[in-house]
Amino acid sequence: MSKSKNKKAGAEVTEVKEIYYGPPKASLSQQQVVFGVCHIYASFNNTYIHVTDLSGRETFTRISGGMKVRQDREESSPYAAMLAAADVAKALKLVGVNAIHIKMRGRGGVHTKSPGPGAQAALRALSRQDLKIGRIEDVTPIPTDSTRRKGGHRGRRL
Fold first, then answer.
1. Taking the alpha carbons of 68, 73, 75, 81 in that order, is the dihedral positive or negative?
2. pLDDT, tens digit (0-9, with 9 covering 90-100), for 63-94
C-alpha cells in the first residue's frame, strides 16, 4: 500500500491506494476463467507448491510443506501438503486466478523418479478448493545419458 498525504487548510487527509499484482480483474457480468500454472515438486524431504502465470515469469504464490509444520520429519507428509495447498488456494483467490494447470515433479535425474508422499495430497486438496483443474502433467527430469549413479560397482549392499 502506498500512502500520500494532502494538506488542506490545516486538516490532514490520507489517501490509501491499493497496489494490485495479478491478472486483469473480470467484470461482474461475465465470469472468465483465469489460468495459472501450479508447479508441485514433491521430494521425500519436502513438498513445494509454486504457482506462476502461464509464461512462468510472474510468481503468484510459493508455499512449502515445511512452512506449515514444525517437525522436520513432517515436511514431506501428506498433511503438510494439504495445509500448503489450502494456503495456495486462498492466495490465488486474492489474486484472481480461478483455474490452474498442474505440473508435478519428483526428484528425477539419477535419483528416484517417483514423486514424494505429498504430491497426491496436494493435488487432491487443490481440486477440493474452488479451483478448476486444466491439464495435469508429469515433468520429472528423466536422463537420456548421464553421470554415474551412486552405489558403486556392486550396488548398495543391505
1. negative
2. 999 999 999 999 999 999 999 999 999 999 99
